[in-house]
Amino acid sequence: MLTVLFLPIIIGLLNGKRFLIYQNLVTLGLLYVTFGGSNWKQGISIIVYVIWQVLLVYLYHRYRMQKNETNVFVGAVILAIAPLAIVKIFPFVTGHTSIIGFLGISYLTFKAVQMVMEIRDGIIKEYNPLMFLQFLLFFPTISSGPIDRYRRFEKDFVTPPDKEKYATLIGKGIMMIFLGCLYKFIIAHYIGQFAVPFTEQMALHTKGFSMSLLLYMYSYSFYLFFDFAGYSLFAVGTSYLLGIETPINFNKPFISQNLKDFWNRWHMSLSFWFRDYVFMRMVFMLMKKKVFKSRVTVSNVGYLTLFLLMGVWHGLTWYYIAYGLFHGVAMCINEAWLRFKKKHKKQLPSNFATKGLAIFITFNVVCFSFLIFSGIFDKMIH
Fold first, then answer.
1. How is this protein positioned relative to the membrane (predicted)?
2. pLDDT tens-digit map of 62-103
3. Which of 79, 89, 180, 341 is the most buried (most CB within 10 A)?
4. Nearest to residue 373, comparing CAs of 331, 334, 321?
């Protein structure tokens, strides 16, 4: 179906043209299929949400062209986050799902907040509501990312690739789509249908730390990777067919030699977003205001806050928060080890065996964090 729908777009791009009207009609059609029909509440929610964000960014841009008060900027960020915050907090308070939620609200919010912050920084000087709409509602990435950057997206959208480059993108895109289907619909499907529930039941039956729990930890971790990486490959591959080089989201994360390396490979667009728009800004603010004398303390506070926020973003349940805190503490330990390693570089061995050990330790630390994330300890308690 996608091949038929995208064929006119592909033909146009091969000739250096973007058939914008047709592409927008396809996007509207796919959005209707996703959010319309039986999901009409989601459809209304996304329409209201998009109007809210487009108007908010427009008003803040107009203000920013004249003034640059911090309070107004903070207010704009809070207003951009407000719909997502309501969706996350409402079920925790009432026990019911919020009526304003829809699939992909988190990723659209990341894009909107990014716009406000880059307008504040003076990086985005001109605001085109129609281009922002294209960026916000780019269909391949709307539900689960990857999270693109506005200026990079705008460049690809306004200037289609030449014929030779686009032919290469088509080849890469098709390969990614096939690989994504293999990951998500075959490997993740069978792990999720058989290995995960089987090992989960064994773990719940035995309770406590056991071999069954260990098997569940590994099966759930691999399921999480192949499911999400598969979707991300599919999204990036589809983006390539549309002439947009959406950044990849995963880069062999299970061969990471330390936790920092892992977060540079796992859900990269999200981790880089939090790094650039939360961690770096927080560290800069703490250092500027001299809240802490030690740079190490500033860095540790930044990591703890960052990963706690990431945990809360997943949901207001204790195991998501524990997952975030676990990674925050683990990152502080990881940074301390990297500093020690750098200081004693000549005394510490570095060879195939030590690298293999580093990969093994990192892999198991990550898998244990996913075990927390899975919520199985909550099931054991209850």
1. Multi-pass membrane protein
2. 999 999 999 999 999 999 999 999 998 888 777 777 777 888
3. 180
4. 321
3-state secondary structure the chain: CHHHHHHHHHHHHHCCCCCHHHHHHHHHHHHHHHHCHHHHHHHHHHHHHHHHHHHHHHHHHHHHCCCCCHHHHHHHHHHHHHHHHHHHHHHHHHCCCCCCCCCCHHHHHHHHHHHHHHHHCCCCCCCCHHHHHHHHCCHHHCCCCCCCCHHHHHHHHHCCCCHHHHHHHHHHHHHHHHHHHHHHHHHHHHHHHHHHHHHHHHHHHHCCCCHHHHHHHHHHHHHHHHHHHHHHHHHHHHHHHCCCCCCCCCCCHHHCCCHHHHHCCCCHHHHHHHHHHHHHHHHHHHHHCCCCCCHHHHHHHHHHHHHHHHHHHHCCCHHHHHHHHHHHHHHHHHHHHHHHHHHCCCCCCCCHHHHHHHHHHHHHHHHHHHHHHHCHHHHHHC
Residue 376: which of 186, 210, 228, 190 has the closest Cα? 210
What is residue 36's predicted lDDT score, i.e. its pLDDT? Answer: 67
Active-site option among 205, 267, 314, 382: 314
Which residues, at least 6 apart from 30, have a Cβ–Cβ distance to it below 8 Å?
5, 139
**pLDDT recorded at residue 1:** 65
Q: Which residue carries 């089987």 as its tokens?
A: 198
User: Does the annotation mark 314 as catalytic?
Assistant: yes
Q: Which of 48, 58, 47 is nearest to 115 (CA)?
A: 58
Amino acid at 258: N
pLDDT in tens, 134-173: 999 999 999 888 999 999 999 999 999 999 999 999 999 9
